[in-house]
Amino acid sequence: MRQTSLPLENLQAWSRLNNVQLFDVALEPHITADNGDDHGGGMLAKADRAETEPLVAVPLELVLSKERVEEAAKVDTGLRQLVDAAPTLFQVGPPFIQQTNRMRCLQNDRTAVLLFLVYQMTINSPDNSDHAPGFNNPLADYVKFLPKDIPLPIFYTADERELLVGTSLAEALDQKLISLQREFDSLKAATESITWCQQAWWDEITGCLDFADWKLADAVYRSRALELPRGASVGMVPVVDMANHASDDRYNARFEVDEDAGSVLLVVRDGKSIKQGDEVTIMYGCGGACEMIFSYGFLEEHASSAREMFLALSIPADDPLKMAKIRVAQTAPGVRIYVDEADQVQWDSTFVWWACINQEDGLDFRVEQTVDGDTELKALWKENELDPSALQAKLLQDDLRDVFVLRATVRLQQRVEEQGMRLAASEDDFDNALPGNAQIRPYVYETVGRLRKLEMDLLTRTYETLEEQKNQLLESPVVRAYLGQDRSGTDVPDSPDDFS
């Protein structure tokens, strides 16, 4: 649907009208970066500010969060109908996924805020034809200030998505788009019986809501939501969300909640000072290169490492316990690879342990009947009931610990090698993609190119680290005894079939 926008030049006036205090800070629609590029709106200091001095104070009632949406719904009939429909949203997938989605719908701030955003976008839209109810409030105008063009990967063209082949972002983007489409379909199913929704959103003639609008609402929330300290929820904070990002050693401001004053404060970061004319910056997050592009659409200018990446893992199709493992584990089927503070490559995965053990090791399953007549699948380890979350601890305490760790190490190394080969194989296509292709924007090409290089570097380091760990484990007396060899026997093959 078409959107009504207000220029950022008007945001300072909106701030005054809604009791947002600016302490020697100017809201600028255009900020020039160090390299001379215009990177959009931001904040500039109009005077020197010392450590912990306030820069902005925003009343808590202006924070767009689940609590704020619930308050607004008490006096807004149309919004109330959406909130009431929320428990029926996003109930898709297997039973345990349905429960997870229902809990997210009832407890997660994201769902409430996205419903508010599409509701307000509808009211603001010139395509609405007055079918949606609603009334003006401070947040209605705030939504008009929000960007309508956000450079997140969910808006990449098909040719731009091809540039991602071999990166961890490619699969994450595929899954995100599937999830968003599923949510949008569920939104329609849950609200098409609401009269105004049918007329304003779903009617073939008067309906104006489409999948692009849902993607925009998600992108706005994902790129602007702040996790407020002291358990004050997650939400979008007007004006504070104008501050641009800087890396861990460069940002100069932070936000906090002043419960006594009833406001969210943006203050000068501890150990920093701000000079007149400096840009006020915060740190959006400390995730890896993939996460920065996924959630914010850019990479830090000075990024020299991918920091972390998530690779999907699977259980072999010929594993007779595959479906039982997946159902009981209920954990992300993948591995997180990251670089720690000592610049050492580490990995973290619960799923890999499920993939590495079998019935001969002592894993088994049984079906039990519950008191209400349903059936429940239980995991067993050496004939004792197993808490799924305790599997890794059980294996690391087992006499065959080194055997299990070696299996996990080899499996992860194979997965890392597979990802690296996929990335390398697509390099020529990437190099030849840009010239003459109007469907690929130069800034996207440059961003993805940097991601590809950083992830290849991390994959290479990870493979070498796992190779070293594998070789050490192959010297373990436990491993040698398990393979029927002693220290003086023949060499253990690099990738024994037992561990593949």
How would you briefly describe this protein structure?
By secondary structure, the protein is of the alpha+beta class. Helices cover about 40% and strands about 15% of the residues.
List keywords for this structure.
four-stranded antiparallel β-sheet, protein-lysine N-methyltransferase activity, SET_dom, set domain protein methyltransferase, domain 1, 18 helices, alpha+beta, SETD3_SETD6_MTase, single chain
Protein model, in words:
With 500 residues, the protein is α+β, with helices and mostly antiparallel strands. Helix content is 42%, strand content 14%. The chain has helices at residues 11-17, 66-73, 77-85, 95-107, 109-124, 138-145, 158-162, 168-191, 195-202, 211-224, 289-296, 322-329, 351-356, 391-397, 401-425, 427-431, 442-474, 477-482; strands at residues 21-22, 25-28, 42-45, 54-59, 64-65, 226-227, 234-236, 244-245, 253-258, 263-268, 279-282, 308-312, 334-339, 345-348, 363-369, 375-381, 384-385. Strands 1-4-10-9 form a 4-stranded antiparallel β-sheet, with no helix packed on it. Strands 2-3-11-8 form a 4-stranded mixed β-sheet, with no helix packed on it. A hairpin with a 4-residue loop joins strand 9 (253-258) and strand 10 (263-268). The protein is globular. The two termini are 52 Å apart. InterPro entries: SET_dom, SET_dom_sf, SETD3_SETD6_MTase. Residues 18-285 form the SET domain. This is SET domain-containing protein. One of its GO terms (molecular function) is protein-lysine N-methyltransferase activity.
